[in-house]
Amino acid sequence: MAKETKSLVIVESPSKARTINKFLGKEFKVMASVGHIIDLPKSKFGVNVEDGFKPQYIRIRGKEKIINQLKKEASQVPVVYLATDPDREGEAIAYHIASILGKEEQAIKRIEFNEITRNAIYRAIEKPRSIDRARVDSQQARRVLDRIVGYQVSPLLWKTVYRGLSAGRVQSVALRLICEREQDIRDFVAEEYWIIRMQVQGISSASFWTTLVKIRNTVSGKWEKARIANEQESRLHETRIRETDLVISAIARKRVKKHPGPPFITSTLQQAAARFLRYSTNKIMTVAQQLYEGVEIPGKGSIGLITYMRTDSTRISNEALKAARGLIAGIYGEDYLPSKARVFRGRKSAQDAHEAIRPTYISQEYHPDQLKKHLSNDQFKLYSLIWKRFIASQMEPAEFDKTTVEITGGDYLFRSEGETPVFDGYLRIYGLELETTEDTDQPENEAIPSGLREHEKLQLKKLEPKQNFTKPPSRYSESTLVRELDRLNIGRPSTYAQIITTLIKRKYVEKSENKLRATDLGETVNTILIKNFPNIFNVSFTAAMEDELDKIASRLYTYEKVMNDFYQPFTAAMENVNARKDVIKSELLEDSGEICVVCGRSMVIRWGRNGRFLACSGYPECKNTKPLEERKTAEPTGEKCDKCGEPMVIKIGRYGKFLACSDYPKCKNTRPISLGVKCPRSGCDGDIIERRSKRGKQFYGCSRYPKCNFISWYKPVNRTCPACQNNYLLEKYTKAKGNFIECPECKSVLPREEK
Length: 755
Fold this sequence. Notes:
32% helix, 755 residues, single chain, Topoisomerase I, domain 3
């Protein structure tokens, strides 16, 4: 090391080290630990329960070289600054690094900063502190709790289902939410209801639509919410409405304001980016980490573009607020700038350790459009979302003139509501499409003409009854699952991406059409866990554990108290479950109704690594097995096999449905199921077939693949576009438009009924 070097700064990642290094002079050397350097062992429990639940950490394999380099450099300087991430995990990493350096405690300083800028780093160096053992203990408690649950519950799954499965303390509760939603969908019974809308016109105004909202109870005389159960009731009401005189009974006009939301915290960033950008939570956090640690900008080097992305606080520094207000006034004008900075109230459970997620440099020079050419597509999109949300949070609210018209006709009350934009405010940069909450129906905005007056008589132009059915609850998307976990205080927002990734990786959950669906394996695991550990894998207990971990960090509870309070009831539950493991295993076995052709015993359905299969109940004396798929009822098609003449049937395989000869295994002829649509590629005579990717996602492709590589994520429709004459259209669905068809070339949209 050069003689002028007086201090060593240790961070977690090499990219973060490069960014910080350009701000510090020759007196500092910046090195990276590349994450954790020690951890619990993989091959054994690694927790000494009898000795105060002390973790038995070992050095992570492959980290010896890094550890030796850190120790060598640390031995040559008087002061070491530990600048790991400013959260509990970062605090624990700093503690572990300090424990292996072999330096006096006073020679090791802990520094933290919310943004990687020159000012923030120097301010941190000027105000170092010692390592916070309470925060270390809180993180250690989380790690040890997860190890206890995983190490003791997972073997139960190995013995009852198959080896290699895992049970996580928080992961299993997230799985429970997904499974319970799946059960709600199965239990759902749709109910019919009818909506009546009518088109009316005033004396000197354009026509407009209005909706029946209330019907007067003829007995009590009170207005009640309109509930029309079937077509017969609907026709009765239609007849009565046609016989009434329609009069505007009330008109209300008022100015309404829509205020911007707070800047992002970890959970809301994941929700918004998953919903609007269609990114997985894992991808969101990966890209955010890149933006935080530093992106190479020509002429500037590595620049950290956002503040720390693991935060639950909506707080903003005065310096950032001042910069944002100056930017708004300069770009959009004083009309868009509130009289004073907007301050958002945080949640009671927020740790408020650092600021909300925002751009580190708030100036026109670092506007997303200025940096676009230097960022990857993913980085640009996420940076733009963060930038817009932050700047919008300090802009004036949007203003609308809202008009509500109520129309009375006998015992019927209709209502129309319309909004006219007056001032766009923050919506100038952060539109309503970004604020629309997923799976929430938005009220219909009617076009209400001007010139209407109270007591004005209206002419009925058209009456339109519409049949509807109640819808089952939607499956969770990554966005809505994060929202629910955050609402219930399950785990920490920084762990949500890992939780969802683990559930998919373990094949407990599959992702299809952006929704999370529990697999048979996931539901089986969930059933075992909640049936045998009802007091551990539940929402209230897991949320209470988060509170206790917070209390360790705030020094209200000790590490030993929290661990003891958890471990005693947990071990009692484990003893009871282990005594019943044979019963649990037998409960999972299903009688198949088939007889083993080898020994004559009954065949049962078991679980294996590749799913469920048939096995002889006489195992291990008889080891006869059989694929479960062979016993599934094949669906007849009316087609004949082109090789042997036997009927073709529809079967289900790993990648979905396919046609197969009913005389299998004598005849093994198979072919994909055609949609009846010819491949639209010029010169190709293939058919469009339904296929599935290796990850289980459905798509449509040409039967002559790989000679023809046509694919579509949307179902092709055998129809010519009336606008551009393209030879096929696509079936699509959005919550706003419902079902419709769209031309992939000119983007013309046609309603579904015109197919």
